[in-house]
């Protein structure tokens, strides 16, 4: 009877150790999975930032190319002649030239956005209103 109890105790202890081992491995699994998800999110964010930077850089180069085309038109050359030289249709050249105008408009807007509000006395909205 003592041997049976000893065997039962050892079997129970072995079962507990297996269960503990399984729990530890499951915990490790979930921890590693969470880290993998975190890394994936970081990579996605880096990709998003790089994509935005690339689009900004691309836009700058497109505007630069458009400025060269505008300079060609500014020499007095016909739009059709400039378009032909650049291997574009006149309609495509007009779209390119619009980039220059859009960039100028954006530049004007950003400059005026940076200026402080110029309000006269009583126009700030912070003056107290006197009661009659």
Explain what the structure shows.
This protein is mainly α and 132 residues long. It has one domain (2-113). The protein has helices at 2-74, 79-85, 90-114. Helix 1 (2-74) packs across helix 3 and helix 2 (79-85) crosses helix 3 (90-114). The chain is rod-shaped and about 110 Å long.
In short:
With 132 residues, the protein is an all-alpha fold. The chain has one domain. It has 3 helices and no strands.
Any chance you could write out the topology, listing elements then pairs?
Layout: H1 2-74, H2 79-85, H3 90-114
Helix pairs in contact: 1-3, 2-3
Number of helices: 3
Unreliable stretches covering 5 or more consecutive residues: 123-132
Distance between the termini: 104 Å
Class per helix and strand makeup: mainly alpha
Strand count: 0
- Describe the global form: rod-shaped
Gyration radius, in Å = 36 Å
Q: Give the proportion of residues in helices.
A: over 70%
Strand content bin: under 5%
Summarize the helix and strand pattern as letters. HHH
Number of structural domains: 1
Q: Describe the main β-sheet briefly.
A: none
Features:
single chain, 132 residues, mainly alpha, 3 helices
């Amino acid at each position: 009877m003592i041997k049976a109890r000893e065997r039962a105790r050892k079997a129970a202890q072995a079962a507990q150790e297996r269960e503990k081992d399984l729990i530890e491995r499951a915990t490790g699994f979930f921890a590693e999975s969470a880290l993998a998800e975190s890394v994936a999110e970081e990579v996605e964010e880096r990709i998003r930032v790089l994509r935005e930077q690339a689009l900004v850089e691309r836009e700058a180069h497109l505007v630069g190319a458009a400025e060269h085309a505008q300079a060609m038109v500014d020499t007095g050359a016909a739009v059709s002649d400039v378009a032909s030289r650049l291997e574009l249709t006149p309609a495509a050249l007009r779209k390119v030239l619009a980039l220059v105008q859009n960039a100028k408009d954006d530049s004007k807007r950003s400059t005026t956005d940076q200026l402080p509000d110029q309000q006269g006395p009583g126009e700030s909205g912070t003056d107290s209103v006197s009661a009659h």
